[in-house]
Fold each of these.
Amino acid sequence: MPEGLIAIADALPYLLQGSVVTVIVVLGAMGLGFVLGVPLAVGQVYGRPALRRGIGVYVWFFRGIPLLVLLFLFYFGLCTALDINLSAFTVAIIVLGLISSAYQSQIFRGAILSLPEGQMKAARALGMSDCKAISFIVLPQALRLAVPGWSNEYSIILKDSAVTYALGVAEIMARAHFVATRTYQQLPLYFTAGVIFLILTWMGTRGLRALEEKVRIPGYSPHGA
Amino acid sequence: MPEQILRIENVSKRYGKKEVLRGASLTVDKGDLKILIGPSGAGKSTLLQCINFLVRPDEGRIWLEEKEVHYAHKRDLYAYRQKVGMIFQDFNLFDHLTALENVRIGMVKVKGMAKAQAGERAVAELERVGLKEHMQKYPAQLSGGQKQRVSIARALAMDPRVMLLDEPTSALDPELIGEVLAVIRDLGENGMTMIMATHQIAFAGSLASEIIFMEDGRISERGTPEKILFQAENARTREFCAKIAELYGEKR
Amino acid sequence: MEEWLYLQNEAAPALLKGFWVSLALIFPSAIFGLVIGVIVGVLRVYGNRPVAAAANGFVVLFRGIPLVVQLFIWYFGLPYIKIYLTPFVAAVLGFSLCSGAYHSEYVRGALLSIRRGQMLAAQSLGFSKVRMIFSIILPQAIRRALPGCGNELIYLIKYSSLAYMITCVELTGEGKILASNSFKYTEIFLIIGACYLAMTSVASVLLSRVEDRLSLPGFEHHRI
């Protein structure tokens, strides 16, 4: 057992550097997912039927194919086929981001749909264009409602980031495996990796709960009038 | 010669097979208070929402101050809606904004006024409806009557030519109805042109310039309050008025 | 065409073999996962303090640690304490425990949503706790938990691909091998992607059917 602890202690700095990589990948993916997810949600709720169908297909595609398959497809397949030279790190963020955008779009869509119809009506009655009404009335409320769902999405992306090890991204799992094969202390090291992920999850969820509190509207409940 | 503010001709609306509005026509002069009464589903709400095109009528034409409104042109539509204020039965205040911000947002984002200037006007409107002390509160912190008064202030801040009120007191607790009716009466006495759908028959009787009875999507009878409420030609009108006079009290 | 010949003679058989392995992974894991989920969910809601705490701890651990890490622990880590599992067994173990933890969340939510009045009525009729759970609560809870658990099963279909990472060669694994040899990554993985899309789509449709079949008036699930 003591060799196990020694191995952990030795590897810890190296693993923690990996957690920086992990966090950057996760934040990048969440950001990309958000930037794409909001317009997709708005399009799905307010767009023409053709647009809604198109977005539906996009969502079905990115929610139906495993992450690992998409990573291989993009990194080994499309990059060579289209002759683009991207690092595994970049591809990881892009693929995780695209998948997340499909899930996030559904979170935001649900939040927008849960708002009372009257909000949009009142905005139009004042003479606002649909674009203004969505930007100033619908989205500020919908985004607040979506924070719990977003918090969930964070923990999912964090765990999915471990899969990017398959492309050689130097995140926590890759490093744990690297050290484990050299020191033969697999169990302690993978366990430590697991604990690091747990801590990162906990920190993130805490942070997002603080965000939820900060943007809360006094007395507001989604079913209020 | 009274100035004609609004003219509506032959407005119809169908939802699938159901005709909710059939050929409704109406003219409103400056300072008029026209009141729509009738049973649920008669089309009162649909008519009001067709007037500011929240609902697209299938047929019909609308003129505001002698100029026809072409809702196909988005710019014209938005400009038109600024001149027509609407009060909803469910208030529809913007939940994420304070009372002050609710009143101010139309001026800032639609009319393009400077925030400071719009803010001053917003405070003035809130004072007019008696809610200046509550201006930093959010809708969730206000009572129903207060919410409705804020929504009236919000509509007034846009300087509308005519106000449409869709059963403004139907969602309120009985003791809160009075404060909203007082504000509406005040507006009427100061010359605001209004079309209101309501069950408040006593109020209608005392203030209306014309009462319009609607049934099954059609305007079936119209006339002065005295005529409609007490000497209606139509049997159905008489029946309806008698019933709500019972419920909502009658005042001669 | 050379492409089609390749597809027929080399790719198709290998991918088909991988497909069967995937199915062999998915079905047992789904069943074990559901069973574990129901048991853990029930323990979390109705168990006494220590039992519920243990069950909760199980869920925190298996939902918080990435599935990849869990798989590595079962396959690469257990040998450390002299337990040697085949890749297939380690994969099924990992999938069952992980999805069991997620299923228990939905089961727990469903159980908590059953109104207290139902339980009071059952107790006043003389039902024992266990009887009450099985005859009154679970039939209702299963309908409530169905959408969430169904969703989790679809996730299972997708993360069965991770078995490749502990050397259990299923559909994705076969694809990687084929592609490394032929360099036809794009084609092969597009085909594999299509296979998974087909699997998840079929599963979604079947789940909707089951939900509709089991639905009772008043228990409608508000589907977004």
Note: The mean pLDDT of chain A is 89.
Amino acid sequence: MFLQQMVNGIMLGSAYSLVAIGYTLIFGVLNLLHFAHGEVFMLGAYFGLQIVLGLKLGLPGAIAGAMIGTAILGLLIERVAFRPIKKEHFLAPLIATIGITIILQEVANKIFGSEPAGFPQTVSIQNFQLGPVGINTLQIVILGISLFLMAALHLFVSKTRLGRAMRATAENATIARLLGVSVNRIIMLTFVVASALAGAAGILVGMAYNAVTPYMGAQMAGKGFAIMLLGGLGNIKGAMVGGLILGVAEILSVGYLASSYRDAFAFGVMILILIFRPSGLFGSLIHED
Amino acid sequence: MEVVEGEAFTEGGEMSSQDALSLLELRSLTKIFGGLAAVNNVDVEVEAGTLHAIIGPNGSGKTTLINMVSGLLQPTSGEIFFRGKNISDVRADQRAFMGIARTFQNIRVFGDMSVLENVMVARHCRTSSGLGSLLFKVPFKELNEEKEISRRAAEILDFVGIGLRKDAKAGSLPYGEQRLLEMAQALATDPVLLLLDEPVAGMNPSEKELVKSLIRRITDTGITVLFIEHDMEIVMDVSERITVFNFGKKIAEGRPAEIRDDPEVIEAYLGRD
Amino acid sequence: MEGLISPFVQTILIIGGINSILALSFYLPFSGGQLSLAQGGFMAIGAYASAVLTHNFGVPFAFALVGGACLSSLVGVGVCFPALKIKGIYLLLITLGFNEVIRVFFLNFAYTGGVGGFGGIQPLTNLFNLYLVLALLIIFFYRLHRSRLGRALRAISSDQDAAEARGIPLTRMKTFAFGAGGFIAGLAGGFYAHFVMFITSENFGFHRSLESMMFVILGGSQVLWGPVLGAYLITIIPESFRFIQSFRFEFLGICLIIMMILRPMGLLDAEVCRWKWWRERLLRKVAK
């Protein structure tokens, strides 16, 4: 039973990691807490849903479509709510993202309604038994896609020129600029990558819980922040591992505690981390500017 | 009433007998950033009452050193002794209370507050009215202290030379006057040791003269001054002792005349000037 | 006095007053450079605690209010202290967590009604006691601004590291601002509970904290009249323009963004508040 929970948790957690990577990337490169990232995740789920229902495309199409859709959304957010704001007022960009959160949530509510929408079956469910643990194809798909995307991101950040430019900007934007990095482009790229990952995660989580609501973004935001803190602010590896940990912890807590505590669980984790190890498991990025 | 916290440090000062003369002592002080040693195993002693300069090429670790002494940065290893007491773990605001004040290379005054308020706020650690006098009409204590803070701040502004600007918004002051304001702020904490990070950077010759005479007047009041500078004329003119840095290490130390003739220093630095 | 004002206007005045107090509770830590999204949680503690005191123990309103506010403040500082010690956005994050934890706590706390809420609270809030407290708060903020503590807070807000270098104890000041903010929000909660007479944990969720922030950000985050103006504007405008009602949130979200782009300090700032500034503008226009 415990092992089963672990497996379920890892599967869920891997999708969480995708979102958390987005939060931590944006914090790392832009020193911004992107409040509206949860809403990007939520809209990714809805985009995927519409693609499956409306365009009758299968899962790969839905995921690709959703990722493109959220990537564009990310670009829009950067253009409209991040770039025009003067950075001297330290909290102004953050507050603007709160504005975006409100707008996106309400718009989604108006367009799609607040009732949870089920995710239609796009994958034929087959059950496998690996020893004491049972998994089905849906879980394998979710885990597989998440791991694939995480691996792709890791390669991108560590091996490509753009990825290195991103890391340089995260450490010190002024010096990166001196080294010839177009910081504005990198900022756009960061938003695009983070949003695309969140879009994919939206579909995956929507499928996992078979429920898509306009408020899943707000729920995810809390978890995203908790994972960021757990793994260390700005730390991508930390976000990956932290997501898995939170996923497992969440599943276990539902199993052993009442489910009405589930939402507050992530926040409880946050508070505990801040008490015992504020820099996170793997260390936070210190911005020198 | 809020009580000003003095971490076992009294005005009389606790000094061990053998360190009676050296006010500040840095022992094996090291700061490593991402694999590079910005300050590398440095030993420095600053004697009380002196005007001590730190010079060296750009990037030689001087500002990092000052940041560690003032408490802005934590050393990677090594220790800092102030008046015989190890202050390596003491917070920056407590160090101000103990008598260490500083200015910043890139001028950090509180732009939205008035010039007078900037200096008044620096009197925080020497005053004590708190929540009690805010809430309850204890007019005498708070009013008297406010008057005193205000008076003393104006006095310091006059000493520094910008007394007439006291009601202006700090951010609206020209560069040179903002530097003077910062020095006024530092003096307002009643320091024993004043750390100046490039006090005349970006100033024209007449402004530099003003600052030079101000520094002399400050030492006349008994305050020890440790300053970083690139302007060799000023350094040679006012300092009693010079420490030379290069690549995070101390390469020479002594009186201005000795430093001027030191071949290593000339090679590392003076030659390029 | 009450007979002269229509019930509708009375309600607006009371809600506006409560919102003003809530706004001021956000303003205090904010003026010390801290963003606290826990005001909803503070309000909840104040609301429930004061309601329990008047309803279950017959404690007089004034004492219940203060008692609830004190509890609010203590719990808030106790839980969030780890973040107060560290510089950066940690306080913001922990206040989010705190808010949620409080909400879920009251959702499950049987003694105060749990999911079913707490009802039968006596309607002890009236224009007199509410505005008396609001007036006292305004006097407090006015005095704070001119005081040693107020200057220290403004310095921290302007440049934390420089403030520390000038001898200002960061943690102590931040704890003061945060705790006092929690106290004030607790007062707002007490007034709220004894006005609506029935409360559930849903009244105090993230949206409530968000509201407290919006009052200040939109109304003016640099002067004490900003939060008050923001509170009244946001209370009154949706009531006046019915068509905005259903787009209320989108409208507020757009306002936030536009405000951050054009005027991040909010509607009122230090200049606008000084009548001399207006006089100078008038003179300049006349001179042309």
Note: The beta strands of chain A are 127-130, 133-136.
Amino acid sequence: MTGKSDKVDRTNRRRPPQQSGQKARGTLGKDPSSGAPLLPPHWYLMLGLASVLGLLLGTAVIVLDLISVAQTPKISATASTVGGQGADRRSRGDPKAPVVISEWSDFQCPACRAFALTREPALDEQYVTTGKVRIVYRNYAFLGPESFWAAEAAEAAADQGRYLEYRNLLWQRQKGENQGAFKVENLKAWAAELGLDMAKFNSVLDPEVYRDAITAERTEGEGLGVMATPTLMINGRIIEGVPTADRLKSLIEEELAKKR
Amino acid sequence: MRGWFVPVLAALGLADAGYLSVTHLQGELPACGGYAGCAQVNSSPYAEIFGIPVAALGAALYVSLLAVSLWRLRAPANHLPVATLAIYAMVLAGTVVMSYLTALEAFVLHAYCYWCLGLAFITLLLLILVVNELWRLGSATRRV
């Protein structure tokens, strides 16, 4: 064998010719041996375009999300129009409704907020406004000082017949746990935002007029079997956590059927 | 074997985003092992874009990613660069959105959803993988 043929053999071993019909698969970046350029022409231009496309697509989603959030209607503040007076000032719906749901919650509890945002609108539409259900809001403040301050501020708003509006604001502005969202300064600013009589509001909030009552309400809840929030008592039947929409509906329908 | 990493991660991402989408559309809250962060994040107004769950957009992205990455496994070598570029563009868009969502969790909502963090991690892994593949494609060409 000549030296020349040795050289050819070595070349062939390093770069075996590709047979027609033979396909290279799954060999990313490892197929320079085919002799054909692996990348298409204008590769770097295409890479740049792909980067721009990806960034634009992602940014578009973010912009749409922010626009959507800006246009999201705030939780209805008109619910207070169905609110009660006196002992029922923290309730909604017909006082003679056949089903009474006591909703035990803490204003710092995210699941309580989730219940308010995801379950209550449908509950209102199907049952509260139709006179079948009355909801009574109960305090179970246990997550720390801001839970108490928020509950006390809500009571101060209730003194002015604005409990439900204030409650809705608290859910909207819940942020973290004892991180300052419900500091007294904010609670007062939101009361002013709702147009409450601030002298009256402050005279209730500053000396913590409702502190003992809120503590006592929690003790009452514990006595009734509340161990976590949210806890619903549907005509006395205890449901812990956020029930699915279907389960909530069936629980209410069961109670309505009993009354028929 | 390396080619399977992307479809496997895409399938995991699809399962994650799909679960979040289904629970959202059913009006449920995702299971979170007793932690309330998932409820807070998924019931926030940022979780929907004009009524469409953000998770559903993620699921759509991961379906596309899975389809392209599976096709790429069987594609002829001359189609690999373009398929990889398409995957890269999708993963880059996903990374931008997941960065935004994670920042919202950290700085606006002050609550974390494990499912969302999982998806962010998968997306980041995919980005690292795909950028690495693009790098190797470029390097291979320079050697030719």
Note: The helical segments of chain B are 5-25, 37-42, 54-74, 80-109, 114-143.
Amino acid sequence: MVKGNWALFEEDFYAISQILQTLRKSSSARSVMLIDKTGQLINSIGEPPGFDVTSFSSLVAADFGANAEIAKMVGETDFSTLVHQGTHESLFLQHIANRVILVVLFDRKSSLGLVRLKARRAGDDLLNVLQKLFDKLQYRNEEIAPPALGADFAAEAENEIDSLFRD
Amino acid sequence: MSLINYSSREINCKIVYYGPGLCGKTTNLQHIYSRVPQETRGKMISLATEMDRTLFFDFLPLELGQIRGFRTRFHLYTVPGQVYYNASRKLILKGVDGIVFVADSQIDRYEANIESLMNMHDNLAEHGLSIEKIPLIMQYNKRDLPRVVSVVELEKELNPKGHPYFEAVAFRGNGVFDTLKLSCKLVLKQLG
């Protein structure tokens, strides 16, 4: 398992997007998201949600983190799935590869049973893609320099920070 | 634990404001929220008690815009300062890229600062992290109050390794952006 910073490359992103697309269609979900465990959105497929996705991602990660701690207290290592059922909208959350959270947002056009079934299959596919990605990153971290952003990146970022953040 | 997405060309980094209860962490974020351009900031989320004490965390996303073709974002979090919320503090530190330790300069809060700093080290260690590898900025807040510990004394006790520090009066905004700017720069420098 790769630790620290991680990166997603074109082919991995494409493979992940395909899996999320398939899941959305087969489960009749409104949208499907993949969120890093630290609360950063990786990808969102389906209807553009009518809420702030960045805040949503941070809350989902916190929700999952809090539940993982609760799981430990009752003697489980993790609650691998969480369900939040509302009157109109529901959420299905699944932990994958100890690194990302698969989120399915669905309404009455779908059902929890269907979402759970399809998400399990998508979870296996995502696990394969992520495992290959982590192996690749591990190799890069050990054998090659980490993905470089270019020498000018830090300088340009500093200028941007100075111009944006001031009283 | 920043995430670089080479496909959508996005970089997301996480900065956590740590410190004892009522030291001014949320005030830092509130000032930033009130002063940055609307298009730069996202929605600020505060999971607080009815008494406005942070229960789980405050969250403020900031967008720097395109840098060398990468859409660059900072996610700012505060932890709940009160001692009994340690499980929450530990969770928020997960995947942190940069830390701002907000110390309360008041004499009465001297011990609380030390305790909180030790707690931060312990919680980082539980995630397998060390402050040697994460940019840390010290912020000595509430410098306008009458009974405060001298900066020399605070430096000696809280910052023996000489991490960068700023004096601040967060509710007036003094030192808030200096702290944020340096933290962002150091985090991005680590990625470069």
Note: Residues 3-191 of chain B form a domain with the Rossmann fold fold (CATH 3.40.50.300).
